[in-house]
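ARCHIVE RECORD
Type: protein–small molecule complex
Small molecule: iron/sulfur cluster
Source of inputs: curated submission
Record status: active
Notes field left blank by submitter.
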Amino acid sequence: MNGTFLIRTFGCQMNEHDSERIGGMLRADGMTPTDDVADARVIVLNTCAIRENADNKLYGNLGHLKPLKAEHPDLRIVVAGCLAQKDQGVIQQKAPWVDVVVGTHALPHLLDLLRRAEADGPQMDVAEYTDLFPSALPSARDDAFRAWVSIAVGCDNACTFCIVPFVRGAQRSRAIGDVLAEIQGLVREGVVEVTLLGQNVNTYGRDVTIPGSSRRPLFADLLRQVNDVEGLRRIRFTSPHPHDFTPDVIGAMAESDKVCEHIHFPLQSGSDRVLKAMQRSYRRERYLGWLDAIRDAIPAIAVSTDIIVGFPGETEEDFADTLDVVSRARFDSAYTFQYSPRPATRAASMPDQVSKEVVQERFDRLVALQQEISLEKAREQVGTEVEVLVEGAGPRRSSTQARTRTNRIVHLAERLDPGAFVTARITDAAAHHLTGEVVPAPASV
Ligand code: SF4
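STRUCTURE (tokenized, with ligand):
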């Protein structure tokens, strides 16, 4: 293929990772990226299926592309990602101007599908290949100094609200050697921070064995071995599942100096009755127990979480339990969602779906409580001096956005180069970002 391409990415980090691979393949095939939709020869919509409006977003975007396709018949439109895997042939029925539908397991076949679409018209590949890992594909990363590294795809859990197991399949872990080789290669390219990606990182290795041994690699093993990679400065990971949390992971986090003091620890609900209906297989006191154990081992750790409001059957008492856990857990930040039924998930057909008005009212109360806690916790940072990694331009042209090891955004007045490590004294705090000034690094840094 020649010409230009444009990729629109929806949803989670896993999709951002896959979009870097799509860009890598198209560049390796001689194409160049563009931000101008009218100038693109190939447009890829890398879709998410997690929330109701995800469908609307896709078909809305495809509606906008129809006249462009009529004007430029050689334009190729690709739908990839979780909605491609969920809706499959329905997409080309609803939007026959789509040239390629490629599922989450078939990404390595994209170039071949595009060539076939050039010659024979619309193509689709949504087969569940189990031997292909997008991580094996060339990557076009947005940042030169940090990278997503997929350690596993798919999930073996069956949370009743979640569509991921249907669209990403069962968990498949990458061989530990492949992950380490990729990270060593990234460090040679100048990467200083990696984020290990998986739907459920702490069950990594459950489905593979270590070469020459019957033992299965554990996530704790992986963390320690990644920590030994020369030249790497920071390690992050997302997402662990509270049910599969084990003391060895906490030990590996505490003893690995490059593992950043931040954990994303999805709660989803504070009500044991709702957690049971969600099939989250842990209960609130166990969750809080894990949180205490993590904070005992790593006192400086920042904790973010996911919470769903309005799960079918959620009563005011259940919601009060959620508010209670939020007050006790004192998360540094939380992604809060209004429940939306996803086709094929068990929760979608559960009785007692909660009305939008009630969900909205509860959602507003939860956000207000968490906002208060986030601000109080952010204010505790004022006056501290912390190492930050420069990410790029800040809100004002002349300023800089950087990030602490605890995953807090820091705005700095001066303009600094992305990828640089500096020490910042925190001078002010808002709920979702800090303000700081660059100070000389302490002698040890
Ligand atoms: S752990 Fe649950 S919520 Fe997370 S991806 Fe798996 S099924 Fe979905």
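CURATOR ANNOTATION: The chain has a mean pLDDT of 93.
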